[in-house]
Amino acid sequence: MSADALLEARGVSRHFAVREGLLRSRPLRAVDSVDLSIRSGETLGIVGESGCGKSTLARLLLGLLTPSSGEVRFLGEPLAKQPKSIRKDIQIVFQDPYSSLNPRMTVGEIVERPLIVHHLGSAAERRQRVAELFNWVGLPRESVTRYPHEFSGGQRQRVAVARAIASRPKLIVADEPTSALDVSVQAKVLNLLKDLQDALGLTYVLISHDMRVVRHMCDRIAVMYLGRIVEQGPTEDVFQNPRHPYTRALLGAVPSMQRRRQRVRFAVEGEPPSPLSPPSGCHFHPRCAWAVEQCRLTSPTLRPLAADHLAACHLAEELS
Fold it and tell me: Which band of pLDDT confidence, cut at 50, 70 and 90, is reported for residue 37?
């Protein structure tokens, strides 16, 4: 793990018991032995297909879920053992701005709420802070008395961003922050997040299934498949030289109107296996065109291949 890590996951797993009949249950491995390190000031992207465990991992990093095994550490200390006041340093922007804002509260009250919960400032100071936050996210100050239903989707997400930065956090987890928005406003919200990061020195964990968003926003990316990290590294290294077949498939599926060179498209057949009964060995081997007998028998470990570039594939060197 990095010595300058702000947040790190060490062997973090989360299993859910799924009932089968009245007396039996089976474990669903939503997150399976994940190691991650998030450095101060960077944006780490976590990508993968729907159902791969991205959002569950996000909630583990936030402390909203307790790991079945392993631990999450913030500023070098176990998150579970830190006082509740540490919550102000880790915030989240949820996927859906239509359901993440209380419809019975004005947007001013919504943004002020973290300040009240963490006892930050007097009433007058909080009102000034809310006005300042609305200015930061590009909303008029006079709109603080309006309700969420009076705003567009993009404006609601700006309110959610204002709420997230209200307590001056060190880390923000953004869980698919633009997927519920029209394409025309997605770029504006992403640019807002970038501008706030530069101005406030924020650290982001960005959950997404959109590789174009990840390339635009992230310094490093981690690719998840069936609860496991299968590749991680600097964004451009992963895009230019993917070392895992699943990463290649994700990149090959990105539409492009113009290509500087013809890219071979690596199709992935079939649906992801059920996390209730994952395949033996490498979880990806039933859908992998390069799979050999070793892939079926032995689970590959996430190992370094180049500077800060890791992959969990037996054939990673051959795929370079």
Answer: very high
Rounded mean pLDDT of 246-258?
78
- pLDDT, one tens digit per residue, over 274-317 is 888 889 999 999 999 889 999 999 999 999 998 889 999 999 98
Number of other residues whose CB lies within 10 A of the CB of residue 293: 10
Cα 288 to Cα 27, 62, 280: the distances in Å are 25, 33, 14
Instruction: Please spell the DSSP secondary structure of 189-229, one letter per residue.
Output: HHHHHHHHHHHHT-EEEEEES-HHHHHHH-SEEEEEETTEE
pLDDT number for residue 66:
94
Strand partners, 306: 309
- Which range, of 104-113, 192-201, 254-263, averages the lowest pLDDT? 254-263
110 membership: H or E segment, kind and range:
helix 107-117
Q: Are 131 and 141 in contact (CB under 8 A)?
A: yes
Q: Specify whether the CB–CB gap between 11 and 31 falls below 8 A.
A: no
- Whether 7 and 29 have beta carbons less than 8 Å apart is answered as no
Q: CB of 265 within 8 A of CB of 319?
A: no
Return the amino acid letter for 13.
Answer: S
- Cα dihedral sign for 284, 256, 53, 303? positive
**Residues, the chain, total?**
320
Per the model's pLDDT, the better-predicted residue between 22 and 85 turns out to be: 85
Give the DSSP H or E segment for 90: strand 90-93
Element (H, E) at 234: strand 228-234
Helix (H, G, I), strand (E, B) or coil at 264: coil
pTM: 0.90
